[in-house]
């Protein structure tokens, strides 16, 4: 099967038909599915949408259970946690709904960890890290696009000369380069390639 536009977070199942991976939607599976907006709601109390997934958390005074439900806890109510809590050996600890969040100085509210600047993020060499609240994702470097090639996704150079996204002068030739392009004035013209006279 060939999908001309590609299936960003999914697989090509028929002529221009994409089957999206869980957590993604759209004709080319390029959009994040907001699970928090689904009916029935996936979380009992509060829901936080993340890139390709979601996290559940509870209102103050409730504890998040392993199945995503919220159980009442008088001890939790006294601690006043932002995202619910758990009791460990009789001690109450506030929780953060994602590994990309950490407890702040007050030990009650959660603050974002910037994985991109703290080197916790691991992105392939040709991708750049984009921090999100509670997580991160890897995006192709500028001049590259994500394509499904021989059973896996890879960042492939965009040929700006073919896609006509270059800004070369009418009297210049476009030359594709890795991740970018160059413009060279045609014979009989001189200039930068963006301006030829």
From TrEMBL:
Residues 32-71, 112-150, 157-195 form the EGF-like domain. It is found in: Secreted, Extracellular space, Extracellular matrix. It comes from the Eukaryota. Gene3D superfamilies: Laminin. Keywords: Calcium, Cell adhesion, Developmental protein, Differentiation, Disulfide bond, EGF-like domain, Extracellular matrix, Glycoprotein, Repeat, Secreted, Signal. One of its GO terms (molecular function) is calcium ion binding. InterPro entries: EGF (IPR000742), EGF-like_Ca-bd_dom (IPR001881), EGF-type_Asp/Asn_hydroxyl_site (IPR000152), EGF_Ca-bd_CS (IPR018097), Growth_fac_rcpt_cys_sf (IPR009030), Nephronectin_domain (IPR052235), NOTCH1_EGF-like (IPR049883). Pfam families: EGF_CA (PF07645). The keyword Secreted applies. GO terms for biological process: cell adhesion; cell differentiation. Belongs to the nephronectin family. PANTHER family: EPIDERMAL GROWTH FACTOR-LIKE PROTEIN 6, PA14 DOMAIN-CONTAINING PROTEIN. This is EGFL6 protein. The lineage of its organism: Eukaryota, Metazoa, Chordata, Craniata, Vertebrata. The gene is Egfl6_0.
């Amino acid at each position: 099967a060939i999908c001309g536009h590609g299936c960003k977070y999914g697989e090509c199942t028929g002529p221009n038909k994409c089957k999206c991976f869980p957590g993604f939607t759209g004709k080319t599976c390029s959009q994040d599915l907001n699970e928090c907006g689904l009916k029935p709601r996936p979380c009992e109390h509060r829901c936080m949408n993340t890139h390709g997934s979601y996290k559940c958390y509870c209102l103050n005074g409730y504890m998040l259970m392993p199945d995503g439900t919220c159980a009442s806890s008088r001890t939790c109510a006294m601690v006043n946690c932002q995202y619910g809590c758990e009791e460990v050996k009789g001690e109450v600890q506030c929780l953060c709904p994602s590994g990309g969040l950490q407890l702040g100085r007050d030990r009650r509210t959660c603050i974002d960890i910037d994985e991109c600047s703290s080197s916790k993020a691991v992105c392939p060499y040709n991708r750049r890290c984009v921090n999100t609240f509670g997580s991160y994702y890897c995006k192709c470097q500028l001049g590259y696009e994500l394509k499904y090639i021989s059973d896996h996704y890879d960042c492939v150079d965009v040929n700006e000369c073919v896609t006509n996204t270059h800004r070369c002068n009418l009297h210049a030739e476009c030359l594709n380069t890795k991740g970018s392009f160059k413009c060279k004035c045609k014979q009989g013209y001189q200039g930068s390639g963006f301006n030829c006279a």
